[in-house]
């Protein structure tokens, strides 16, 4: 059992001054430092002025297999980016071996990320994800819109899914990703979602990332058209947006991006109790615009923040991602947004991914970050943590020290 007394404690939903925690594998107690001092005496570890305890951060959306990208891919527009992915995919994937993936997972840990959702296209990130200390929601991705190829593509997906299901370690969750409404045939989607329901697997999907996607799904036209006609000999979108969302009716899902969703689609997302993953840096780099947070809040749709992969980001650091979100959404009230961002990468992300962490509250797993700031702590700490990221001194997962 460990007892830590910090200057400030972020619980996942609020900020407490001079409160400490008692934990072993899970959090046992949160109480004012003076109460803990009286009760436990010399067993208490004083962390001193400027020390902050917070829940481990949760990155719900990353593509680790693309971690070799630095300047290979083209930024500025979705179609130029997609074409560059197709042209350089093999090269990027081959350049990123287990060590390259491990390095990015360690990088996330050094930024206080104790859980992540990895969208895996090929299964090449399985070994590193299985062996790392973090909690992992391992989303095996299903892709394929050509009915002639459906059986082969589903078999390949199943093979990867089954391989991930052989990993037996606490905190590792084999799961399913449906790539997008334009890239997966409805028969495959329905089959995969049926399996997900039967086996209580977590599910994610990309949705309405670009205007090109909007135009293709609505009108079978726009920038996507030449791409589908030339590469895939397809003249019609695989799904309409409404049909696509209807398949997820009873499967609460994490939908990534959702920038160009219509009001009806937002209603569907709200009714299905789905969560939106917001990746502001990726959205900016690929020219997709900015998510309208006011519309989500008006529809009471939960949103969380993710980094996306290094295929559309320069870092897998949620402090940086939150800071960018803070400046991108300039019409939101500053302090309220900073608080909401913290909640999104801790308590809300954990709930959406069905993980027993993200809160410093008794009975939650002791996934904890101990950090230090070199400035006086005020009520505006959630903001200052983004402007001047703290030094991360140590990280605990299930109460075990994994860093520091
Ligand atoms: Zn993605």
List the helices and strands and how they pair.
Layout: E1 2-5, E2 8-10, E3 15-17, E4 19-23, E5 27-32, H1 33-40, E6 44-46, E7 51-55, E8 57-62, H2 78-95, H3 98-110, E9 113-120, H4 126-131, E10 135-142, H5 150-165, E11 172-178, H6 186-198, E12 203-207, H7 211-219, H8 224-232, H9 241-247, E13 254-257, H10 263-271, E14 275-278, H11 280-285, H12 293-298, E15 302-305, H13 318-328, H14 334-352, E16 368-372, H15 381-387, E17 391-397, E18 400-403
Parallel strand pairs: 1-6, 2-7, 8-9, 9-10, 10-11, 11-12, 12-13, 13-14, 14-15
Antiparallel strand pairs: 1-4, 2-3, 4-5, 7-16, 16-17, 17-18
The structure holds zinc ion.
What's a quick, concise take on this entry?
By secondary structure, the chain is an alpha/beta fold. Helices cover 39% and strands 23% of the residues. Strands 8-9-10-11-12-13-14-15 form an 8-stranded parallel beta sheet.
Describe the structure.
By secondary structure, this protein is an alpha/beta fold. It folds into two domains: about 1-55 and about 360-404, Urease, subunit C, domain 1, CATH 2.30.40; about 55-350, TIM Barrel (Alpha-Beta Barrel). It is about 40% helix and about 25% strand. It contains 15 helices and 18 strands. Strands 8-9-10-11-12-13-14-15 form an eight-stranded parallel β-sheet. Strands 3-2-7-16-17-18 form a six-stranded mixed β-sheet, with no helix packed on it. A four-stranded mixed β-sheet has the order 5-4-1-6, with helices on one face. Helix 6 (about 185-200) links the parallel strand 11 (about 170-180) and strand 12. The protein is globular and about 70 Å long. The two termini are about 20 Å apart. The mean pLDDT is about 95. The site of zinc ion has 6 residues, from loops.
């Amino acid at each position: 059992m460990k007892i830590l007394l910090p200057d400030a404690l972020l619980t996942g939903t609020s900020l407490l001054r001079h409160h400490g925690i008692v934990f072993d594998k899970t959090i046992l107690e949160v109480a004012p430092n003076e109460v803990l001092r009286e009760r436990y005496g010399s067993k208490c570890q004083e962390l001193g002025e400027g020390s902050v305890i917070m829940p481990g951060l949760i990155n719900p959306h990353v593509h680790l297999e693309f971690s070799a990208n630095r300047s290979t891919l083209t930024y500025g527009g979705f179609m130029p980016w997609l074409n560059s992915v197709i042209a350089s995919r093999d090269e990027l994937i081959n350049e990123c071996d287990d060590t390259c993936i491990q390095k990015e997972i360690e990088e996330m840990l050094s930024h206080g990320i104790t859980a992540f959702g990895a969208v895996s296209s090929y299964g090449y990130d399985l070994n590193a994800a299985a062996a790392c200390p973090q909690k992992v929601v391992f989303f095996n991705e299903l892709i394929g819109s050509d009915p002639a190829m459906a059986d082969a593509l589903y078999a390949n997906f199943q093979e990867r899914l089954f391989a991930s299901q052989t990993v037996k370690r606490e905190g590792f969750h084999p799961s399913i990703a449906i790539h997008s409404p334009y890239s997966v045939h409805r028969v495959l989607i329905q089959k995969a979602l049926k399996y997900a329901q039967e086996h209580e697997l977590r599910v994610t999907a990309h949705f309405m990332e670009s205007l090109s996607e909007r135009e293709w799904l609505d009108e079978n036209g726009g920038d996507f058209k030449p791409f589908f006609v030339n590469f895939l000999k397809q003249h019609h979108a695989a799904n309409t947006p409404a049909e696509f969302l209807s398949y997820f009716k009873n499967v609460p899902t994490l939908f990534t991006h959702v920038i160009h969703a219509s009001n009806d689609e937002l209603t569907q997302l709200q009714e299905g109790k789905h969560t939106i993953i917001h990746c502001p840096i990726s959205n900016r780099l690929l020219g997709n615009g900015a998510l309208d947070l006011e519309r989500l809040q008006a529809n009471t749709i939960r949103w969380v923040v993710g980094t996306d992969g290094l295929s559309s980001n320069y870092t897998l650091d949620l402090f940086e991602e939150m800071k960018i979100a803070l400046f991108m959404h300039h019409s939101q009230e500053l302090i309220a947004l900073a608080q909401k961002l913290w909640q999104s990468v801790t308590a809300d992300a954990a709930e959406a991914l069905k993980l027993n962490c993200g809160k410093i509250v008794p009975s939650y797993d002791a996934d904890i970050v101990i950090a230090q700031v070199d400035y006086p702590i005020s009520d505006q700490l959630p903001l200052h943590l983004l402007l001047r990221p703290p030094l991360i001194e140590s990280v605990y997962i299930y109460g075990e020290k994994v860093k520091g």
